[in-house]
Structure formats: structure tokens, C-alpha cells
Design a protein that fits this description.
The complex is a heterodimer of chains A (342) and B (364). With 342 residues, chain A is mainly α. Chain A has one domain. Chain A starts with a helix and ends with a helix. Chain B has one domain: Cytochrome-c3 Hydrogenase, chain B (Orthogonal Bundle). In chain B, the strands form three sheets. Chain B has a three-stranded antiparallel β-sheet with strand order 1-2-3. In chain B, strands 6-7-8 form a three-stranded antiparallel β-sheet. The chains are: A mainly alpha (342), B alpha+beta (364). The interface between A and B is medium-sized, with 29 and 32 residues.
Chain lengths: 342, 364
């Protein structure tokens, strides 16, 4: 391979992929959500643009692109303009650290399916996903309007509270894998033969509930509760800036689903590793397994949204401080003890 | 950051004010201190307009009051005019009216279930409720061609007779509703989030409810058995056997249960009315130009939203001198501030939804 290919083309391709991959997933997710929710509710959903309406999100984005960009007169212009970018940027940047699979061999070269493999990848991803809350706070504050402000305040309290159980659940995984490297965590699960989700179901449940809350999705969608706060923190946004918030929310969901799959469900590993009779499952490329698992969790998001009513603010906080955090702490202690005794 | 008390303007452009209602809220962070409903955004001057129309021309305008229960408005107005003019309505016409009014109650309550669930965030139930309501609107469409502003009840009777095919269609629709109701109830009744959002929220005692003049399901949810169909029967309601469902706590959850139970009772009433549909005329002989000697009459019915009354004063011409409407939504809305006191902002939406208001009826 020429140095040109190795040093220029491949990195450029990867950069393109890391932007395209989340965006394609976002488009698929928006379409999936609208169609699946529609089917669950006895409706049809968008089915006109493209095959079965798959291009509807694209059409919506094009429409939003041509919409007037309104900045309220009393808004803090700098923060108002920065916050959608901040939200989008942090979600997309995190994808640089999320591996898509084991390195692939093409001829003599090995192609890694990640941009950066950091020994503390997990921390970076969690950190970046927390940065997006600043976009929400700034956006709500800078709008200088009451509904966005209330949405932003709700978001701060919600995300701050739910970070704690998330951290505790993630720590148990780090304990078992003895690594914060996302690739290493998957390899450890391959070596041990059991996915951590089955080994530590409590950690998984705690992480998943907190993840739904951190992505501001139903039943924890209080910061943007439609029937209460109109549209919450992005009430004053229009056009492409609104689209940024909207897409970032979905990108965040894809990110969180990827994390769940990597931390608890073996990433790109095929299911039933130990079973000899099902060895043919290895023939399917790991990336496909990875996508299938992510899709399952994205579907779960949609399913929950179509089923449950919205929490009220006080019961949301009660849930995390009185149930999730004690549960996560107890789980953490048990895992630590087992790890120590072994 | 210290959070001072702020004034929050909710509506008239807001997803959950059920129309163009405006609420001036004073909130301390999320806790509601004061609620002041501001009305008039849908005022069309209906009552004044009616003074320049003949008695029969007014009927289609009553459709536009509570547009989720247009037949109930027709019925209340027609009964008041008939009382004033001394028109005897044939028995078959009275039964047809009961069928139509109860179907309308079903449609209104099903739509309410959907709205209410959507306000609390259970989005799917909105569609389930509306799907069931759709069947009933289809019946109206087959009956007289209209779905929302039906104008199906006329002075002296109904607009059409109920024929055999329509009767069997109504029966088929009524058989489908309990299944759909069961779907909705399985999603909400024992749902922890739903109960947290509704049980004990917006409580009012029976005494306070009577003082505020609450009527309809919000009153019965407090355990007060007051239903015009039972207590001051009109339109042959005393021929039918049905129960008046009651709540105990007077909270949002009980209002929800009372309305769902009323749906079941309405199905019973419609079934009995179809079984016992008497032979005869579906409309009394009413002169084309109805002139009523000077006098005044007041008549109330149990509309889906509460007790709906019309006062009609005549002056000997073919037009009324004054028509006054006593609308249940308007009166029930008065209790909103009392119900919301000290609750969280999210609950205001649930409480407002549980009162089942329609702005067409409030602003007139």
C-alpha cells in the first residue's frame, strides 16, 4: 500500500464514515420511530417519500434547511447560536471513540474500525455525552423565554441525577473487564464467554433506565414534554438549529444504544458463542450483529415511548434517588466483593 | 440560583389547553401558586346572534358550542323550545334521541380518554380512543351525512328515522367498543406512572364540588349521585335501566374511572333503546314557521360534560327574545384554581384535562 493511501485516503474515509454512519443511523431511527409508533397505534405513518417512506426524514431535513432562522430579539445571541452546535458536536465526536468491530484485514493491511482507540475510551464517551447537556442548558437559558428555561432546568436536574447510577453501573463493567478501553471490554466478554448483561443484569437495567433518562426520552422526556412545556428547551428554535437539536437527540440515542451493546451485550460478537452447533452464526460479519443489537435497543426506545405515560418531575427524582442509586450502589458492592474474593 | 415566583402564560397557543384557553399561572419553580383562566378567545356572540334567528335556524348553531357533543346541545335546546311551545314528541322520536345522545356521550368520552392520556404523555391511548370514536362518527355519517356538527335532532323529533341496517350497524359498533376499552384500561388502569400522575391529584370534596357548582363526571367522581337522566328524567330516560357510576376520592383518577364506566352504561342504554324501539312517528308535526306565545322555559339535560341547560324566552314572533345557555364546561372550569392549588405545573395539565372542557361551549 502506498503511503498516500495509508496516510491520507484511509483517514479521510474514516472521517467521512464517522460522520456518515451516525447520520444514516439517525435517519433510519427517525423513520423507524415514526413507522413503528404508527403501527403500534393503528396508523400508517409516513409512507410516501421513497420506499415505505424511508426518505421522509431527509425530506423533513431539506424543508427545515429552507426555513427562516428566527433568533428571538431578547436572546443571548452567542449562546443561542452555539448551543445547537454544541449538542450536535458532542454527540458526533463521541462516535470517534466508539469501535464498530475488530480490525479487518484487507490483503496485507489491517483496517481498524475506529478512529481513536483510547485506553480510557469509555470515560471519554461518557464525558462527551454529558457535554451535550450544556447545549441544552445554554439553549434554554439563552432563549430568554419561560418554557425553554423550565425545560433547561428540568434537564439539568435530570441529567445530573441520572449520571450517578450510570457511573455506578459502568464501574461494575470496568471492574470485570479491568479496562476502560471499549475494544478491550468486548474482547474480555469474548474471552469469558458470557456477556456482562447476563452476568450483571442489575447493572444493565440500571444503565438502561438511566440512559433513557439521559437522552430525554419517554417516559423521562420532561425537558421537552410536549403537552406541558410546548417543546421544552428548544421551543424558540426554528429551522436548521431546531433540526440540530432533533438530530442530536437521535444521535445520542444511537450512541447510548451502541454503549449498551458494547458494555453489556458483547458488541460485535455473535450470540451463542460457546454452542458448537450454532457456530455458523460466526459466518455473519460482526458488524451486522452489532447493528442488529443496536437496532434492538433503538426499537426498545420506540416501544417504551408508545407504551408509557410521562413521569412527573418529583416522582422522576424520587425514582433515581430512592431506588436507582441505592440499587446501583448495592449492585456495585456485590460485584466488587465477588471480584475481590475471586 | 434563587428562583423567584414567575408568571407563566399558558395559551392561548399551547398544546394542552384544549382550544384557545389562556391560563395565567403564577409558579414558584414548578409549584403552582395561582391559576387564572382568561376567556374570550373563541367568543362568537352566539347568544346575541340567536336573537336574530328563528327557532329552527338556531339548532345547527348549537352544534358549534360543544363541538365534541353536538347532538347533546341540539337535544337540550330542542327540549327547551318544545317545553315552551308545548310540543309533544312521539315516543319513537324520544327513543331515537336517546340513542343519538348516548352515542354522542360515547364519542365525547372516548375522545376525552384520548386527550387526557395524551396530556399525561400516553400517546398511544390518544389514537386508541379516537379509533373507537371514529366508528361512532361513521354511524352519524350514515344517519345524516355529518360527523362532527351533526344537527341530527330537530324541534319535535329527529331528522331521520332509524332504519334496520343502521340499527344492526350500531349494534355491531357497540360490540366492538368494550374490547377497545379493555385495551385502553390495560395500558392505564394499573400503570404505576399513570396512577402517580392521577391518584390524589386535583382532589375536591363533595361539599366543595357542590359549592363550586361542578356537574357531570367531576361531581360524580366525588361520590355525589347527581345525574339528570336519573334525577329529572327527560326524553324517556326513565324507561331504561342503568347505573350512575360514582367515585370516592374526587381526584383525577376517579374522574377517569367514572367516565370509562359511563361508557359502559351508555352502551347498555343504547342497547335497551334499540331493543325497545317503539313504532310510530320519528318527528312531531311542527309548523314550518314556529311562533311561540310569550313565555319562558328552562330545560336541563345530562350532557357528556355535565348539566347543560337552555333558557328560552319567547315574545310571540318566530324568533326568540333571548336564549341563555348554562354550559357545564364554563362552570366546571371555575374550580380549576382550587383544584390546582399547591400542585406541580405538570399536574395543571392533567387537572385541566380531567375537567373535560370545550372552549366552544365556554366562550359561546
Amino acid at each position: 500500500m502506498t503511503p498516500f493511501v495509508a496516510d491520507v485516503l484511509i483517514p479521510l474515509g474514516k472521517i467521512a464514515a464517522v460522520i456518515l454512519y451516525p447520520m444514516v443511523m439517525v435517519v433510519v431511527m427517525i423513520w423507524l420511530e415514526r413507522r413503528v409508533v404508527a403501527l403500534m397505534q393503528g396508523r400508517l405513518g409516513p409512507n410516501r417519500v421513497g420506499f415505505q417512506g424511508v426518505l421522509q426524514p431527509v425530506a423533513d431535513a431539506v424543508k427545515l434547511f429552507f426555513k427562516e432562522d428566527i433568533i428571538p430579539r431578547q436572546a443571548d445571541k452567542l449562546l443561542f447560536n452555539i448551543s445547537p452546535v454544541l449538542v450536535m458536536f458532542s454527540s458526533l465526536l463521541a462516535f470517534c471513540f466508539v469501535p464498530l468491530g475488530e480490525p479487518v484485514r484487507i490483503g496485507t493491511t489491517t483496517l481498524t474500525l475506529w478512529i481513536a482507540d483510547s485506553p480510557v475510551g469509555l470515560l471519554i464517551v461518557l464525558g462527551l455525552s454529558s457535554i451535550s447537556v450544556f447545549g441544552v442548558i445554554f439553549g434554554g437559558w439563552a432563549s430568554n423565554s419561560k418554557y425553554p428555561l423550565m425545560g433547561a432546568l428540568r434537564s439539568v436536574i435530570q441529567v445530573l441525577s441520572y449520571e450517578i447510577p450510570t457511573g455506578l453501573a459502568v464501574l461494575t463493567v470496568v471492574f470485570l473487564a479491568r479496562s476502560m478501553d471499549l475494544v478491550e471490554i468486548v474482547r474480555r466478554q469474548e474471552a469469558s464467554g458470557v456477556w456482562y448483561g447476563f452476568l450483571m443484569p442489575v447493572s444493565f437495567v440500571v444503565f438502561w433506565i438511566s440512559a433513557v433518562a439521559e437522552t430525554n426520552r419517554a417516559p423521562f422526556d420532561l425537558p421537552e414534554a410536549e403537552s406541558e412545556l410546548v417543546a421544552g428547551y428548544h421551543t424558540e428554535y426554528s429551522g436548521m438549529k431546531f433540526a440540530y437539536f432533533y438530530m442530536a437527540e437521535y444521535a445520542h440515542m444511537v450512541l447510548v444504544s451502541s454503549l449498551v451493546v458494547i458494555l453489556f451485550f458483547g458488541g460485535w460478537l455473535p450470540p451463542f458463542q460457546g454452542v458448537k452447533a450454532l457456530a455458523f452464526l460466526h459466518a455473519v460479519p460482526g458488524f451486522i450483529w452489532y447493528l442488529v443489537k443496536i437496532m434492538f435497543f433503538l426499537y426498545l426506545y420506540v416501544w417504551i415511548r408508545a407504551t408509557l405515560p410521562r413521569y412527573r418531575f418529583d416522582s422522576l427524582i424520587r425514582l433515581v434517588w430512592k431506588w436507582l442509586i441505592p440499587l446501583a450502589l448495592a449492585n456495585f458492592l456485590v460485584v466488587a466483593l465477588v471480584r475481590f474474593l475471586r | 440560583m434563587a428562583f423567584r415566583e414567575i408568571d407563566l402564560n399558558m395559551g392561548p397557543q399551547h398544546p394542552s389547553t384544549h382550544g384557545v384557553l389562556r391560563l395565567k399561572l403564577a409558579v414558584d419553580n414548578e409549584v403552582v401558586l395561582r391559576v387564572e383562566p382568561v376567556l374570550g378567545y373563541l367568543h362568537r356572540g352566539m347568544e346575541k346572534l340567536w336573537e336574530s334567528l328563528t327557532y329552527t335556524q338556531i339548532v345547527p348553531l348549537t352544534d358549534r358550542l360543544d363541538y365534541l357533543a353536538s347532538l347533546s346541545n341540539n337535544l337540550a335546546y330542542c327540549l327547551a323550545v318544545e317545553k315552551l311551545a308545548g310540543i309533544e314528541v312521539p315516543r319513537r322520536a324520544r327513543y331515537i334521541r336517546v340513542v343519538l345522545a348516548e352515542l354522542q356521550r360515547l364519542a365525547s368520552h372516548l375522545a376525552w380518554t384520548g386527550f387526557m392520556a395524551n396530556d399525561i404523555g400516553a400517546m398511544s391511548v390518544l389514537l386508541y380512543g379516537f379509533e373507537a370514536r371514529e366508528d361512532i362518527l361513521d354511524i352519524f355519517e350514515e344517519y345524516c351525512g355529518a360527523r362532527l356538527t351533526v344537527h341530527g335532532i330537530r324541534i319535535g323529533g329527529a331528522v331521520h328515522d332509524l332504519d334496520g341496517p343502521l340499527v344492526s350497524r350500531i349494534r355491531a359498533v357497540l360490540e366492538r367498543i368494550p374490547k377497545r376499552l379493555a385495551d385502553i384500561r390495560s395500558l392505564l388502569d394499573e400503570n404505576r406512572i399513570w396512577k402517580e400522575r392521577t391518584v390524589g391529584i386535583g382532589r375536591i370534596t363533595a361539599g366543595e364540588a357542590i359549592d363550586y357548582g361542578l356537574t357531570g363526571p367531576p361531581l360524580r367522581a366525588c361520590g355525589v349521585a347527581w345525574d339528570m337522566r336519573k334525577d329529572i328524567p327527560y326524553s324517556s330516560y326513565d324507561d331504561f335501566d342503568f347505573d350512575v357510576p360514582l367515585g370516592t376520592n374526587g381526584d383525577v383518577y376517579d374522574r377517569y374511572l367514572v367516565r370509562l364506566e359511563e361508557i359502559c352504561q351508555s352502551i347498555r342504554i343504547v342497547g335497551q333503546a334499540l331493543d325497545g324501539l317503539p313504532e310510530g312517528e320519528f318527528k312531531a308535526k311542527v309548523p314550518r314557521v314556529l311562533k311561540i306565545a310569550p313565555g319562558e322555559a328552562f330545560h336541563t339535560i345530562e350532557a357528556p360534560k355535565g348539566v347543560l341547560g337552555f333558557t328560552v324566552r319567547s315574545n310571540g314572533t318566530d324568533k326568540p327574545e333571548r336564549v341563555k345557555m348554562k354550559s357545564p364546561s364554563f362552570i366546571n372550569l371555575q374550580s380549576l384554581e382550587h383544584l390546582c392549588q399547591g400542585n406541580l405545573f405538570s399536574d395543571v395539565i392533567g387537572i385541566l384535562g380531567s375537567l373535560d372542557i370545550v372552549l366552544g361551549e365556554i366562550d359561546k
